[in-house]
Amino acid sequence: MVTFDLNSTPVSGYNPNYVCNSTKCNDCAKTAIEKLGATATYEALYLKFKENPKFTEVSEDGKLTRLSCRKSEEMWFDTMHTLGDLGDSMHIISLFGIVLYFVTSSDSASLIVDTMSANGDPHPPTIQRKFICHYNAVCIEKKPLQFCSTRLSSMIETLELQDVHNISPLVNVCHFATMVSSYSDGFLVIIEPFDDRTPTISAPILTLTCLDASVALKPVLNAYPSVVITSGTLSPLDMYPKMLDFTPVTMASFTMTLARSSICPLIVSRGSDQGLLDAIQRHKLVFIETTDGTETATALANYHLACETGRGAVLLSVARGKVSEGIDFTDHLGRCVVMFGIPYVYTQSRILKARLQFLRENYGIRESDFLTFDAMRHAAQCLGRALRGKTDYGIMILADKRYCRSDKRDKLPKWIQAHLLKSAVNLSTDEALMISRKFLHNMAQKCPHEDQLGLSLLTREHLDNETIMKRVEQSDKSSWIRLNTKILTLRFNPVVFFGSVLILWSVVLCSLILQDKMPFGDLLSWITEKWTWLYISSQNLWFLFIVYLYFSKYGKIKLGKDTDEPEFSTATWFTMLFACGIGIGLFYFSVYETITHYTGNNRMTRDPSIPDNTLAQMALNVTLFHWGVHGWVVYTLVGALLGIISFREGLPLTIKSCFYPLIGERIYGWIGDLVDIISVIISVWGICPSLALGAIQINSGIRYLIPSFESTIFNQVMLIWAITIFATASTVSGTHLGIRRISEFCFLLGMLIMLVVLFYRNTFYILNLYVQSIGFYFQWIIQLGFHCDAFEQEISSGGGAADRNRILKGGDYETSDGPMDWMDNWTVFYWGWWIAWCPLVGMFVAKISKGRTLREFINGTMSAPLLYTFLWMSIFGATGIQIERQAASAGLCCKPDFNLVTLNNSIETFDLSSTSLAGYNPNYVCNSTKCNDCANTAIGKLGSKATYKTLYYKFKENPKFTEVSDDAKLTRLSCRKSEEMWFDTMHTMGDLGNAMHVISLVGIVLYFVTSSDSASLVVDTLSANGDAHPPRAQRIFWALTEGASATALLVGGGRNAIVGLQSLATASGLPYTFVLTYFCLSLYRVLQVTCGDKVPNPPTFKIGVLDGFSSPKVPYFLPDIYILLKSILNIFTAPWSIAQTAAALYGPMYRIPFFSVSVVLLMFSVGLPFGMFFVDGAGSLALTAYCAWCTVVCGMRIAVRNKCGYDANVMEDVGAAFLVYPCVTLQMYEEIPQITSTKGDKTSEQKMTSWDSSSFPFEKKEHPVEQVNGNHPGYAPNDKHNVYSNPQFQTGF
Description:
Layout lengths: L15 H4 L7 H10 L5 H10 L20 H10 L5 H31 L8 H11 L5 H5 L1 H12 L8 H15 L4 E8 L7 E9 L3 H10 L15 H6 L18 E8 L5 H8 L1 E4 L4 H17 L3 E4 L5 H5 L9 E5 L9 H14 L3 H17 L10 E6 L6 H4 L4 H4 L9 E2 H15 L5 H4 L7 H16 L5 E4 L4 E4 L1 H21 L5 H32 L18 H12 L1 H17 L12 H15 L2 H20 L11 H4 L6 H36 L7 H21 L1 H26 L2 H24 L3 H5 L27 H4 L1 H21 L6 H36 L10 H11 L11 H4 L7 H10 L5 H10 L20 H10 L5 H31 L8 H36 L1 H23 L29 H26 L4 H17 L10 H27 L5 H10 L1 H10 L1 H6 L12 E2 L42
Helix pairs in contact: 22-29, 22-43, 23-27, 23-35, 23-43, 23-44, 24-31, 24-35, 24-36, 24-42, 25-26, 25-36, 25-41, 26-32, 26-36, 27-35, 27-36, 27-44, 29-30, 29-35, 29-42, 29-43, 30-31, 30-42, 30-43, 31-42, 32-36, 35-42, 35-43, 35-44, 37-40, 41-42, 42-43, 45-46, 45-47, 45-49, 46-47, 47-48, 47-49, 48-49
């Protein structure tokens, strides 16, 4: 610039020698100079390049960067800077993350190297760690201890020891070692320096004891999904879950149903007992249980003998002894039981004290509560000796005034309390004697068999009636309107019925008024743009889930009871589900879709490098993909879930029942009704457009045979009502007659058409293509199944393909890349359409599949339809491609630009009647100065002798003469309308054409009838709370409603209104996609419960996530206002709830960190969206913060569930956290008392602790509850049958 003084010289028309390194600048330099503009000077270029050498690679705002020009280490940061205002922040965060990742990689490498140098020690340095371990405690490895018992048994067998009595202490120690290595807590080794009975004599005693009764129950709970604990002495019930460390699904205490009062419990608190034994001995024999087993057995035998001979006897036994706990006294052997005192355990036992401390610290059970509970349990066990059956009777006497107190009496089992009258409390011995005499006199009377019926004895009729009434009371919780008169019978849900009708007709009226202005098409396009990934991924996940169920053990479960058998034969069943599912689609799409993919605008036809044969195979493969497993999986999922939950579990056959495993009885409230309303609307929206479009196709088919039957609105309305009348008659006749027979006939017609075409055409070509297509389908199923047209939807122009020399022109198209709207028009439309039909078809398929196993059901709804559909599509797709190719070879073409008016005027004006077309003037024939290729081809086919007049009459009589050959055996199908392609294909069969045309018309009509009547039946069932046999008047109403809706759409809006409503039905598949995903969870949970892998009603949170919206405690399951208000408040106070929950889970030190993080994340989530108007990318930050916040909530909920032992899954946690986080945080906050009372996690390190009496935590003082006298018959400190005094470890109560 200095040499030539170019400072102000424009750079336009620049000299390359002044700018570049050679006599020619490259393309990038040229582009950069052009971007500077015509007024830019050499100086401007110099300064621009000097200040920013990367200006050709990065845009001025940094939002665009040519990454391929950048260095590898720069690409990441360049990408961050494309985020606009967030660029610098993301740059810094990225730098921080990279540094931390390097740090973690470095320290991990250092640890690994150190471990390797220390011979693999995971915690070097080894010397210090081992020293500290041995200094603090003696650590015993778990693994050797676990095999102590087994190894001792093997050694005894090897040594062939016969008498193991001498080594019983060693056996006990080995057994204890095995148990203590298997369980982490609850075991103690207690060393006592002397015996309590001889405190002055040194006699050390080593006692091994198990303090935790839950140790015995844990293997049972782990091995069995359902455990029932039942006994007549389980009282009070709430003590057992605490002691055994489990959360029960349900607890219930029952009384005994007796025909007469066979129990006489009495509490005797006063009276003279002087000379009692002397008086007894004068009249009865007295036997006593002793500590010697032989003596006790002899006493029992003599007691039985005395009672059998009529002499009578009295047996004195210990309350906690062998007799009271294991011997039954039936009938006259135990007419009266007298309980002297309350059988408390010896409270000065160190083992008992250790157990009491353990229960208090780990389960929050007070000493007094446990001792009273234990004593009353033993008292009830003793009293139970008097009643061993419903035909037995007996007197139960509690001889202690303390039983009069409610804290003792209320802890007796319910079956005893129910017969303990107020007048039988606090009696004297004389009063008790009088009551006993009267009771025995009454019991001696005969009890007639009739008096026991319906009470203690139930006939089959009683059981059936009770069961039926119970089921009706439990299931009939929905809203109902019932009308039963001689003229009219109605049974329906008013909310679902009137709500559905109102919404349906509102949308229909809007469609009639607005027509093209309805935003349904835009809605579908928006769904394609934003949610294609969801449609595509969800279909694949559902398919994998069904495949898993098919091969799992759940495949054997029946859709019904185990004894149920299928109502229909396999052939009939398949024809019915097939006719309802896709019957009519086979006629419409088998030819049309294949030809469209073969010749239309898509990513395959735009690529001219694809051979034509490959293109034909790919076109057929895409058709098979749209009609394959991905479509049928939604029917399978809904049908299987409904079949199992309705026919096996007894819930109503309606879509809302599918949510029962997730939300329980809320399905009977407004949520369930809303689900059914949506299902009804989607079903009707799906069937009405199909009914209208079907009428248009049938009209086209009839017009082909009868030209005078033109395609008019009137004719199409007549066809709609003809189909509606047939469908109504079929619906009224029921599933077993009308729907069944029409489905069978339709299937036979379809088989007839398919086989005739197969054998008429090149049979071996079609069979080859069928086999080949199956292989091609499974080869490409993964790629097709996950293809989302991501790049086509992002940049339709190829995104700079020309700059990379990647433009490959595809015939009439500028680029070989696919169009943006292909996914919108095809795959997304199909998936939405299948999903929109799933409530209708799924319910109908479930209704006809009762009695079949899940594996049979999957075969019937996926495997068999897949093979049959593939055969159908291969036959007619192959035929269509064959016809299209032959027609193209014969010169048939589409849309010649002849103008009949112009041609006629030219003939009359220039007298061209006899003028030859050879060298014709385009101005006389076409719309422009040049005719298109098809017009030229048509004129050439007429021959050299053809005149202008010949062309005029040829085109006037048959405007399609360029598309269809004179004998109709060849048709250029790609030129025809979608509703005409099928009939054109039939007419290529020569003399059979008309016959096949008529058969096809009949089949199409009947398939429409089966779809319509199935839809009417399903919609009626939905609006009638799942009634399997709704009244006929309702069936007629819904059938006529479908016909009237289709008529209104056709008359008022024409095809545009129909397509608009069809788009709306397809778009409605989006919310149903989320529903179906949770259906998978629901189905899996039902199958687990059915197989016994999961309990039906597992323990869960105190308040549900939905209680603020739908509470079981409120009529119609409306919101609980109190919980709703707390949830609304928790929108802002959720961080405090999280902090409090974290403190309960992990300790108080975690409260502030969790609170701080939660506040920051929630503030960013709520506040940043308002910054979108000022800061570019603020919305992205807000979404990121919200995801982080919901992740915290979700993780906390998982931790709470694990802590409290609640059953759920991550999918539920994620959904709840992201959708209703205020309810989730409130739910966790309410669980804080449960969290703090839950037993803490136990360490896996096993330690044995030696205790002596001086370090024992209990002081030697009287226990605050009633003490047991050492001379009391219930006290047996050295009895080997006493659970709590036995020195061996025990897991009993």
